[in-house]
Write a structure and sequence with these properties.
Elements: H1 8-34, H2 61-64
Keywords: Membrane, Transmembrane, Transmembrane helix
Region (Disordered): 38-72
Transmembrane segments: 12-31
Amino acid sequence: MAGPQLSPQARRLQVIIVSAPIMGACAYVLYERLVQGKPRRTLPRDEPDAHGPVFPEPLRASDILHDPKKDQ
């Protein structure tokens, strides 16, 4: 799946093209936080069991192989 080998000069240019936007975005976020005093973005924290247990109980074979004829 690898393309043709790039020359060292083309490889350097590719690295610059890929890394420049990432560095710019990081610098902007850092500027907002350090100079403008914006707080760090965080995810909202709910209660630990608000959305159910982290590891739900495993399924049993009887849960998967339910026979609807037995219910009638």
